[in-house]
Amino acid sequence: MTAFPAEIVEQFISHLDPDADRIKCLLSFSLVSQTWCAITQPFLYRQLVLDIDELRPTTSLINAMSKSPHIRTYVHDLLITGSLDLNESSAPILSAFNDLPSLHSLQIRPSTNIVITRKPQISLTPILESKSLTSLELSRFDNFPAQLLYHCAALRNLAIRRVTFQFPSKSDMDNESIVLRPERPMLKSLILSTQDEGGSDTLTWFMSELSPFDFSQLETFIGLDRCNETISYEIHCNFISHVSQSLKTVLIDPISHSDPDPLSPLDPQQLQKISNMTVSLVQDAAEEESTLPWLIALLSGLPNPDSLHNLTLLCGLYGHSTHGLDFYSIGWSEVDALLARCYNLKKVHIKSYDEPDDQAAGELIPWFEGQLPTLANKGILSIECSTDVTYTESLERQLMG
Question: Quick one: CA torsion of 121, 122, 128, 130, rounded to 10 degrees?
Fold first, then answer.
C-alpha cells in the first residue's frame, strides 16, 4: 500500500468544511494509521468546546489531556459554555485547562446569566495569563471581577456582551497585589454590546488611569448600547474621540429619537481616518419623526467622504404591516445623494434586525432599492433580513477571527 505524503494529508484535512461532520471525519482519519493519527490530532484539538453540563465528554477530554499532555500544545481556541459557576463547582474543571501554551482565543459563554457573589477561584487566572492569549470574549456575567482583566498580558481583541463589572479601586488593587503593567497590552479591537448602563461604566473605566489596556492602536470599536440613553451615547462618542487617532472601523449607536445636533458630542474631524462605518439606525414606520435626519447630518459632517469604503446600517424596521411596508421614507433620497459623493465606497450593507413576516421580508429588498437607486444601480447595495437579535455577529466574526 502506497502511503500519502504527510503534506498531502495535512492539506486534505485543512480543507474540510467546518461543519458538524468535521469532528466525525477527523476521528475517522485518526483511526486509519498511526501516521494519520499523528497528523490529525492537531486539527482535532485545535478548537475545543468545553460544555460544563456535558459531564461525559468533558471527563473524556480531561482524561485525554492528562494521559497525553502534548495535546495541550494543539489547543488554539477554547469555548467554555454551560452552567458555569466561577465561584465553586466549575473551578476543578477549569483548572484542568490552565496550561495551554498555544491558546489564542478564549470564549466564556454561560448558558444563563451568572451573578458572581464571591471572589472567583484562582483557576481562571492562569488561563488569562497565557502569553499566547490574544482574543477574549465574555458573555452574560453580572459583577464580573474587572481585576481579572489585568492578567491578560497579550490581549489584542476583546468582546464583552451583557457583562457588568466590579471595578476595583486603587486601594483594592494594592491590597490584592495587582500592579499596573508598565507596558499594557495594546488592543486592536473592542466589541461592547450591552442592554443596560454597564457599558457606559465600562468605557468610563477604560478611559481612566486604571485602565488595564492601551488603546493608542485601537483600530475597531463596535459599541452597541441597547439602553439608548443620552448619557450612554455621549460616553460612546467620548470613547471614539479618545481613540480617534488610530480608529478605522467604528459602530455609532445613536439614541432612539432624532437629536437636533446628533454630532455635538463628536467632532466630525475625528472621523477622518475611518474607512468602515456601521450605524445602528432605528427607522420607525409611519412616524412624523425619523432618525434619518441624524444619518444625513452624520454623512454631511464627514470631513473626507473619499475615505469611506464600507457603510453598514443596522435598521430596526418597526411597525410594518402584514399587507406591505409602511415606512417613513422622507430623507432616503438625500442619503442616496450623500453616499453617491463617497467615490471610494465599495459596499453599503443594510441589515434589518427585526422579524418581519414573509410578505414584508419579500418587499424589503425592492423597497430599499427604490429608496437608494444610485447605490442599487452601482451594484454596491446589499440588503439582508435577519430573524434574530444577534445583528452584529457577522461583524464580530470578522474582528475576532
Answer: -150
- Tell the CATH topology of 252-401: Rossmann fold (3.40.50)
CB-based burial, 96-110: b 16+ in 10 Å, e otherwise: bbeebeebbbbbbeb
- Give the residue extent of every domain in the chain: 1-44, 252-401
Eight-class DSSP state of 164? E
Quote the Cα angle for 312-263-338, to 5°. Answer: 50
Query: Cα separation of 69 and 312, whole Å?
Result: 45
Give the list of residues 6+ apart from residue 322 with CB closer than 8 angstroms, or none. Answer: 357, 359, 360
**Total number of residues shown for the chain:** 401
CB atoms within 10 A of CB 35: 12
Identity of the amino acid at 71: I
CATH class of the domain defined by 1-44? mainly alpha
CB neighbour burial string for 384-396, b if at least 16 within 10 angstroms, e if fewer = ebbeeeebbeebb
Residue pLDDT, tens place only, 304-353: 888 888 888 877 665 555 455 555 667 888 999 999 988 899 999 888 76
Question: What gap in Å lies between CA 160 and CA 213, rounded to an integer?
Answer: 14
Cell numbers describing residue 382: 446589499
Report the C-alpha gap between 18 and 24 in whole angstroms: 11
**Cα–Cα distance measured from residue 164 to residue 116, given in angstroms and rounded to the nearest whole number:** 10
Contact 350, 384 (CB under 8 A): yes
* Residue found under cell 453599503: 348
3 state DSSP class of 242: helix
Its pTM stands at: 0.80
Write out pLDDT tens, residues 77-116.
999 888 777 666 666 777 777 788 899 999 988 887 776 6
